[in-house]
Specification:
By secondary structure, this protein is an alpha+beta fold. It has helices at 16-33, 47-54, 56-72, 97-112, 141-157; strands spanning 37-44, 79-82, 87-93, 116-117, 123-124, 128-134, 163-164. The strands form two sheets. Strands 2-3-1-6-7 form a five-stranded mixed beta sheet, with helices on both faces. Strands 4-5 form a two-stranded antiparallel sheet. Helix 2 packs across helix 3. The chain starts with 15 loop residues before the first helix and ends with a strand.
Length: 165
């Protein structure tokens, strides 16, 4: 994989493949050294509605802003990437589930309070939902992400703008 394929051009975070490759590496290290590892799957609530109301350029600006907020609110050792159209993944090495919850809540709150503007400079709110999971000994990336996805679904079912673990 070339360097450009490792990064998402819009958000400047790792691409899906780039972050999944890093996750597998971190799982191997966690397995070897018996370290904690947690993951957050973050979904922008109702991004399609934002795009429909304000256009794709504003939707892209939301994605860029959310990516910037994520990057500013994680440690240098943490990994963030774009996971899907409106989804991000945050990998938190050496973090148990409760430490991951603190980080996830800080990100959620910062995004909720961020000043997002439409084309006419009108302010609007953006919220995110997150699902957390913590790596268990012997578990692969697919199982870890599957549990995070289940918790993301719970967050959406329980009203969005929340973190579930």
């Amino acid at each position: 994989m070339s360097g450009t394929e490792w990064f998402d051009s819009l958000t400047e975070l790792l691409s899906r493949q780039g972050v999944l490759d890093k996750l597998r590496e971190l799982i191997a290290l966690s397995e070897r050294y018996k370290h904690n590892l947690s993951v957050s799957l973050l979904d922008i609530d109702h991004l399609n509605r934002i795009n429909e109301r304000n256009g794709q350029f504003i939707g892209d600006a939301v994605l860029e802003n959310v990516a910037r907020i994520i990057h500013q609110n994680i440690r240098g050792s943490d990994i963030a990437g774009r996971y899907g159209d409106d989804e991000f993944i945050i990998v938190l090495p050496r973090s148990n589930l409760y430490a991951a919850m603190v980080t996830a809540e800080r990100i959620r709150n910062t995004i909720q309070n961020a000043e997002m503007k439409d084309a006419e400079e009108n302010m609007f709110a953006v919220t995110v939902s997150q699902g957390l999971s913590s790596w268990e000994q012997g578990e692969d990336a697919k199982a870890l992400l599957s549990r995070a996805e289940e918790n993301l679904i719970k967050a959406k079912q329980n009203g969005r703008n929340r973190v579930e673990m």
